[in-house]
Design a protein that fits this description.
heterodimer, A: 94 residues, alpha+beta, 3-stranded antiparallel β-sheet, 60% helix, B: 194 residues, mainly alpha, 2 domains, disordered C terminus
Chain lengths: 94, 194
């Protein structure tokens, strides 16, 4: 089981990035509904693990931080969901 | 972890994906715009073939103006997408394919002489070129190189009117067949379990 994805905020961030080419910090914050500091800390962990890549660019002379899901992050998410489904199935059987 | 906790985790994923599903629909505006541009270009050529025996440049004016407006609108749309907080996978893929198609259409216009007599061969090269470049921009250098070779063969063929078929065939062999051989070579042996 992927300990990193047990956090609801980190799992939500990965799920949000699953269907996005990229998303800004502000868009992720709006979608997940958490504080700036909290999300920043969770995203830093995902970036450190290589699940998410971070790029800082300027749009209309304003700094913008974009996040993308990496192949490693996508694979980890798929494995995690699969494991959750297996646990749920086992729970139903027993 | 127990079953209720796993259920909770899956509910989080379901909630996020259900919301994302609503936001991945691409804008229909560009489809409408480019569809109208293509239809006007087709109708212009049809009108010229029916009613005119000589080249009249101003017949193309509406098509050229619409084409320029469509390119401008596409650039504005792409820039607006960059400013918003999120670009969906579908929007990004659509923009990539649109850019490649526009480049391909540019090659087709530039190579108008080939497309009169060698339309079938050139369209094959064009279509295969688009498919390879599309794979190429996802990060595959072999496909990108193959696509560029195919587009280049169409341009070169334009300057070799006595051997158009030969040039297109060489482009197809190097660009498409060559890319296929390179893909196979990079795959490695297939291991069958059991």
């Amino acid at each position: 089981m992927d300990e990193l994805l047990l956090s609801k905020i980190r799992l939500s961030a990965i799920a949000e990035l699953l269907t996005a080419e990229w998303a800004t910090f502000a868009a992720l914050q709006k979608a997940i509904g958490t504080t700036q500091g909290n999300l920043g800390a969770h995203l830093a962990k995902l970036v450190e693990a290589g699940y998410v890549s971070e790029e800082k660019i300027f749009v209309d002379r304003r700094p913008q931080t974009r996040y993308r899901l990496t192949k490693k992050g996508r694979a980890a998410f798929v494995d995690h969901v699969r494991e959750m489904q297996a646990i749920l199935k086992q729970g139903r059987v027993s | 972890m127990n079953a209720p906790e796993a259920r909770e985790q899956l509910d989080v994923v379901d909630r996020v994906l259900a919301h994302a599903e609503r936001s991945i629909r691409p804008s229909g505006m560009l489809f409408v715009l480019w569809g109208i541009v293509a239809a006007v270009v087709d109708l212009t050529f049809q009108a010229i073939s029916w009613y005119s025996t000589r080249f009249v440049w101003w017949w193309f004016a509406p098509a050229v103006i619409l084409y320029a407006a469509a390119i401008l609108t596409t650039i504005v749309y792409a820039n607006r997408a960059k400013r918003c907080g999120r670009l969906s996978v579908i929007e990004a893929q659509y923009l990539r394919v649109l850019y490649i198609s526009l480049c391909a259409a540019g090659v087709a216009v530039f190579c108008a002489s080939i497309f009169n007599g060698w339309a079938d061969g050139a369209i094959w090269s064009m279509a295969f070129g688009i498919s390879l470049v599309f794979i190429g921009i996802q990060g595959n250098r072999i496909a990108l190189a193959g696509g560029i070779v195919l587009f280049a063969s169409i341009i070169v063929a334009n300057f070799v009117p006595h051997a158009v078929g030969v040039v297109l065939a060489i482009g197809m062999l190097i660009g498409y067949v060559g890319a296929g051989i390179a893909f196979e070579a990079s795959r490695g042996p297939i291991v069958v379990n059991g």
